[in-house]
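Bumping with the actual sequence this time:
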Amino acid sequence: MKENDPKETWHKTACVLCSSNCGLEVKLDGKEITRVRGNKSHVGSKGYTCEKALRVNFYQNFHGRITTPLKRLPDGTHIEVDWDTAISEVAEGFKKVNETYGDGKILYYGGGGQGNHLGVGYSLATRNALKITRRSNALAQEKTGEAWVEGRMFGAHTHGNFHETEVAVFLGKNPWHSHGFDEARRVLKEISADPNRSMVVIDPRRTETADLADFWLPVKPGSDAFLLAAIISVIFEENLSAKSWLAENTVGLNEITQAFSNLPVGDFASRCGIPEEQIRTVARRLAKAKSVAFYEDLGIEMGPHSTLVSYLQRVVWVLLGNYGNYGGMSVHSYAAPLFNYKASGSEPTDPVTGSLIISDFFACNEIADGILSDHPERNRALLIESTNPVHSLAESEKFRQAMRAVDFSVVVDVALTETAREASYFLPAATQYEKVETTFFSAGFPDNWICVRPPILKPPEGVLTEPEIHTRIIRELGLTKDVDFLPLRELAKKGLDEFSEGFMEFSINNPEVAALGAIALYETLGSVLPDGMEGAAVLWFTAQQTALKYPSQVKAAGHKGEGPSLGNSLFEAMISNPDGVIFTRHEQEQSWDLLNTVDSKINLAIPEMLKEVKGLADSPTQYTSDEFPFVLAAGERRSFTANTIMRNPEWRKRDQEGTLRLSLEDAQKLGIDNGARVRITTPGGTAVAVAEINETMMQGHVSLPNGHGLSYSPAGGEPEVFGVPTNELTSTDWCDPIAKTPWHKHVPAQLEVVNP
């Protein structure tokens, strides 16, 4: 080995393939990521990683990378344009929409994708400049029901301490593959091996996590609400609740006591497919535990009664006194909130569809319907960033039509995605390894962390970062001039304390420019940050807000100073430590200080939910029919799936095409052999997949993986589609009544063998 050989240098970064963003160390050969290992010094993951991280080079280096802006012609083809032309025409296109239809007819869709978050801070400047008030992203097809419930009950987001909990409960969640907390697989093994701890898994499929569980409850698909309601009824019937604790810390106990005390436990047990005695055994184990931590995920958030189930599981652990206790559930600090929880219960409605705008997110399941209507308030333009709604939202063809129906659309992304192909303009962005990035998904308590990861590669010529793209749009709109920022740049050179004082004065004297927020920071503070780190300037504001909100806890985490100096200390720590930093450190009892309800108590009774509970007895348990007798889970997470961020199918060692998993009983009944091609038909469409007879599947329940069905050009030729695009099979009509989240995990389907 040559001394100082750059190929032998380990570079600190993070995995970008799920929300955990585990710390990595990688080796490079030119632009290729050649070796990957967990970063043992990382503050959150501590060296842990799963097999997916070993494939990040397939994300970074894929065939067909576009390195110049593209303009879509009326015939659907694209031509290359230079950046000056693209920025000019993008700015003019959005201005024209505002002039023609009035402000507020542009929808921003982005900011929720796999740790690619700093760009959304800069997009806010563009949104403010263009008076874009409507927004949505992938969170609005998954988490808005949960956010609505948490806002009503806690005024904030809660998370479990799975590292220390006595009983871990996973509801429609398989952390073995979908993670969701630091060191997930290690923690699962520890719980499973400890005779004093227990694991409960509620899932129709016997997942890898279910194999480790003490209690696996294989509910019939879509019947989770009946199971949880039965558990609550048992808690009341057997006098298992934490009565004195509830009297002191909650409101609404009388209402829910009335709602749940006389439910037909036996009938509900039969309807969800779990023996009544097993339900009672699990309820008693939860009640006996000193701490219980719950985690729900897409398995229930994209199925029937999803918002209700989000509510019911929280009622379970609150009734048993599992808030604020060591190893239980807690509200946590945040560097940047994902939702506006305080708005829960007083949401405005979409003027076009009438649906709730939960936490400022328009229901993405209804975006296409709104655009394709003749309503005068419908969206007339789209700004889409680092996301692929044509592929990821229900009923892909409908969103494709919607993009063609708007007057103007722009996509900012790494690849020419299915969505980007439909846009008026495609603006090529840097990958997450070519720019500074972070994640805001950490939900730790009592300690919470953030990791700012520097770029390890330079973007190819012709590609820009999102901060630079938005800055150029703002300049083109004529809202900033270079001269505006000269004094602040000089102060930034002197140091953060001088800059802080100057920025406050600048904001008072230049309110129009200050309203552009991140752009002002990028143009000033960004100019003195190390090369490639300019985009981290927006985190200065994040650090200041965090220090203002949690001053004692930021100091307890080791950061020094008072007021803006404390924020500066945190900012410097964030941008200078690729291992990540603890940004808040709480005492356990301080979890109660983080509750954000009016009376600082947990609100147990949500009238809309109690109404649904009352109607459960008359609610259907299944939504299949003679024509569509199977329940299709469209988007199962498997060992080699990673949403739509991984376009190159070569990264998959197994399951290249994305098999249709089904039970042996169903295969025998239909005459389906392993490896046979099977036609899947749903009310939304049809597709063909390779059959995989899988012993983990319940009879009548079939699944397709997420992240497949993307177009890709392995040799740079015409794009091919690899695997099944699941949202060619789903429908916007099947969705939650409150959050409008789609039933991706509960699609009625028909199967038949395709003749050779």
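The tokens above came from a reply further down the thread. Residues 623-753 form a domain with the Barwin-like endoglucanases fold (CATH 2.40.40.20).
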